[in-house]
Design brief:
By secondary structure, the protein is of the alpha/beta class. The chain has two domains: 2-124 and 308-330, 3-Layer(aba) Sandwich (Rossmann fold), CATH 3.40.50.720; 127-304 and 337-373, Dihydrodipicolinate Reductase, domain 2. The protein has 13 helices and 15 strands. It has helices at residues 11-21, 38-48, 58-64, 78-88, 103-115, 130-140, 161-165, 180-183, 186-196, 272-278, 309-323, 334-350, 360-373, and strands at residues 2-7, 28-34, 53-55, 69-72, 92-95, 120-122, 147-154, 201-208, 217-225, 231-237, 245-251, 254-259, 262-268, 295-298, 354-355. Strands 14-13-12-11-7-10-9-8-15 form a nine-stranded mixed beta sheet. A six-stranded parallel beta sheet has the order 3-2-1-4-5-6, sandwiched between helices. A hairpin with an 8-residue loop joins strand 8 (201-208) and strand 9 (217-225). Helix 9 crosses helix 12 (334-350). It is globular. The two termini are 38 Å apart.
């Protein structure tokens, strides 16, 4: 039995507490909740009574040893700091996305994780989605051949001005550290690098306060280039109705389209690259169109899962703690997703291409320039 303490009792933290208390975990016992806001702790206490221990002070929580493992579900800037303290105090740790706001802070956490024998995971629950597991398999197995182009339009994040007005920290550089990239898109950016690998460079266009009265971005277009010459486009927005979630992947041997939780897979009879190389005279079909490689639309079976993805990623983490199984979403993977979002911001800030790995000091400098002007005030620059 693994005893769990949850840090943060906001929207996400309270959801995790409900899940732990719902009985869906057979080998987990929630024992403690910590939040610096006494009002939030009072809400938790009213719901769960003396079943749990409640804390409003960090040192009391970490020093209590009422649990074996910690789930961090606080505002973004605190994620790496609290995860590091959890490891320091000898606890396993699972961190909500994103792993942090800037990669330099995450490097310090990774140093601590490397020195610890505790299990360090991140809540990239989309990795449990059978749809994306199948897509990763199609790409990594070579079914699509050499990748040529990736397009992901993910605009079904509709948010109103009332949503942004609901908290003084929301959509601020000082409080949240960014907008749609850092808040809504970490799962998709993680899948982007998990499936396709890290790009070589990016040209980002983040639009700050374009359609909402906020200081951070509410719309983004990013153009990626990869070592093999493949290109990728990532588009996101919070103001489109209806929104879209469409991923297209093109290789020289096939094409995959993912939309509406369905996969369309088109397999070519031969490599398009080889076909083009070997074709000496352009021909036409019966209707006068240019001939092209023959292809078939193939049915792809995807397992269905009715279980919550949040529950599945936590079960995977718990299984690793108990049985030592490989972790589906290791915390050490999370810096890749964060580096992509940092790179898109940095490209926008300097109005130029950004190579990977990014200049982390330059990004932090540019971020702090915006934090100082943020309506959500912090005591000092981030380091």
């Amino acid at each position: 039995m693994v005893k769990i303490g949850v840090i943060g009792y906001g929207n996400i933290g309270s959801m995790h507490v409900r899940n732990f208390e719902s009985g869906v975990f057979s080998n987990v016992q929630l024992t403690a909740v910590f939040d610096i806001d006494p009002e939030k702790i009072k809400k938790a206490e009213n719901l769960y009574g003396n079943k749990l221990k409640y804390f409003t002070k960090e040192e009391d929580f970490f020093g209590s040893h009422e649990f074996d493992a910690v789930l961090v579900a606080t505002p973004h800037y605190a994620h790496p700091v609290l995860a590091e303290k959890a490891l320091d105090n000898g606890y396993h740790v699972l961190v909500e996305k994103p792993i942090g706001v800037y990669t330099k802070a995450v490097r310090r956490l990774y140093k601590k994780a490397a020195e610890s024998d505790k299990i360090f995971g991140v809540v990239f629950n989309q990795r449990t989605n059978p749809l994306y597991q199948k897509v990763k398999d199609l790409v990594s197995s070579g079914e699509l051949g050499t990748l040529k182009r990736i397009n992901w339009i993910i605009t079904d994040w509709y948010r109103t001005q009332a949503y942004y007005n609901s908290g003084t920290w929301r959509a601020t550089w000082g409080g949240e550290g960014g907008g749609v990239l850092i808040n809504q898109c970490p799962h998709q950016l993680d899948l982007f690098q998990w499936i396709f690998g890290m790009p070589k460079r990016v040209r980002g266009f983040a639009y700050f306060g374009k359609n909402r009265n906020i200081e951070v971005e509410d719309e983004v277009t990013a153009y990626f280039e990869y070592e093999n010459g493949a290109t990728g486009v990532f588009i996101s927005s919070v103001s489109e109705v209806p929104g879209s979630n469409r991923l297209e992947i093109t290789g020289d041997k096939g094409k995959v389209i993912i939309e509406n939780s369905q996969i369309e897979f088109y397999r070519l009879r031969e490599s398009e690259i080889e076909y083009n190389k070997n074709l000496k005279v352009q021909g036409f079909d019966k209707t006068g169109n240019f001939i092209m490689p023959e292809y078939w639309k193939c049915e792809v079976s995807v397992e269905k899962s009715d279980e919550s993805q949040h529950v599945l990623v936590i079960k995977d983490w718990i299984d690793t703690i108990i049985n030592g199984t490989p972790l589906l979403a290791p915390g050490t993977d999370a810096i890749n997703e964060l580096m992509i979002s940092n790179a898109v911001y940095l490209s926008t800030f300097i109005d130029n291409w950004v190579e990977f790995p990014i200049d982390e000091d330059l990004f932090l400098e540019k971020l702090n320039e915006r934090v100082r002007k943020s309506k959500y005030k912090v005591e000092k620059d981030y380091e």
